[in-house]
Amino acid sequence: QYAPIPIEKQVVSIFLGSKGYLDGIPVADIQKFVKEFLEYIEVNHVQIFEFIRSEKQLNEKVITDIKSAAEEILNIYKTSS
């Protein structure tokens, strides 16, 4: 049930919430959405996690990449809902 979450996944999860990307997601679905988003990043945008893991920071490119990935997955989420 409780397992450590890698820092890069924590950073991206907090980014989603603090920048409003979760605002349109029903509260009951947020945990599932974030889990699926992190899996999506791992498959389609792994460079985001690699950069955060190695550099321990965000730069403009990574922020842009996270925003782009968030828009992609939100579009998928909205069309499947």
Mean pLDDT: 94
Percent helix: over 70%
What is the number of E strands?
0
Helix segment tally? 4
CATH architecture: Up-down Bundle
Low-confidence stretches: none
Overall structural domain count: 1
End-to-end distance? 27 Å
User: Main β-sheet, in a few words?
Assistant: none
**Broad structural category:** mainly alpha
Gyration radius, to the nearest Å?
12 Å
Beta content comes to under 5%
Class, according to the CATH hierarchy? Mainly Alpha
Reported by name, the CATH topology is Lysin
Oligomer: single chain
In one word, what is the shape? globular
Feature tags:
4 helices; about 80 residues; single chain; mainly alpha; Lysin
Q: How would you portray this structure in words?
A:
This protein has 81 residues and is an all-alpha fold. It has one domain: Lysin, CATH 1.20.150. Helices cover 72% and strands 0% of the residues. It has helices at residues 7-18, 30-44, 46-55, 60-80. Helix 1 crosses helix 3 (46-55), helix 2 (30-44) packs across helix 3 (46-55) and helix 2 (30-44) crosses helix 4. The chain is globular, with a radius of gyration of 12 Å. The termini are far apart. 16% of the residues are buried.
Q: What is the element layout, followed by pairings?
A:
Elements: H1 7-18, H2 30-44, H3 46-55, H4 60-80
Helix pairs in contact: 1-3, 2-3, 2-4
Quick structural gist:
By secondary structure, the chain is mostly helical. The chain has helices at residues 7-18, 30-44, 46-55, 60-80. The protein has four helices and no strands.
